[in-house]
Structure formats: C-alpha cells, structure tokens
Amino acid sequence: MLLGLTSFANVPPLQLLVVEQAKIDAPQSVDVASGLNIAAFNLGITIGSGIGGQVVAKLGLLDTAWVGAVILAVTLLLVALFNRIQQAKCSEQVFA
C-alpha cells in the first residue's frame, strides 16, 4: 500500500503542471494535453512492466534494481532538460 501511495502521489501535481503549461502554450488544447498526460502515464506503466518482466525472465530478479536505476537516471536527465527549457522561456519573457 505504501508503494502505491508513493508511486502515484506524483500524478496530481504533474497533471496540474501539464494543464498549466497547456494554458500558456496552447489554451485551446488543455483537454487534449490532459488526456495525453494520463495516456503517457498508462504507457509508462505498460512499458515499465514489459521491461521489468523481460529483466526478470532474462537476467534475474536482483537485476531489476540496476535497470530501474538506469531508467531513473534517464528520467532525471529529462526533468533537468525540462527545467532548462522552462528557465530559458522565463528569461526570454523577462527580457522581451
């Protein structure tokens, strides 16, 4: 239960972030952005389950830890990239 709470506790804040960003970038497409965000969560669950199953089947249960760490590292890089893009947009708006 604790894993479920912590795993999906990030969904509402991320949904809010997507909706707020859509209001800025494409106000006419807020509903589409919201739907695509939830679809992306479901796709991530599907892909993660598939990767996890393959890792267990081909490498072993203990190897899921390092594969998960690699996926986490890629995710952190994407978050850092998103933050840089957002900071660049903010500085463009300040100087414009």
TrEMBL record:
Source domain of life: Bacteria
Transmembrane segments: 65-82
Compartments where located: Cell membrane
Annotated SUPFAM superfamilies: MFS general substrate transporter
GO cellular component, one term: plasma membrane
Entry annotated with the keyword Iron: no
UniProt membrane topology term: Multi-pass membrane protein
Main location class: membrane
Molecular function GO terms recorded: transmembrane transporter activity
Record keywords, A-Z: Cell membrane, Membrane, Transmembrane, Transmembrane helix
Keyword Transmembrane helix part of the UniProt annotation: yes
Protein name in the entry: Putative sugar efflux transporter
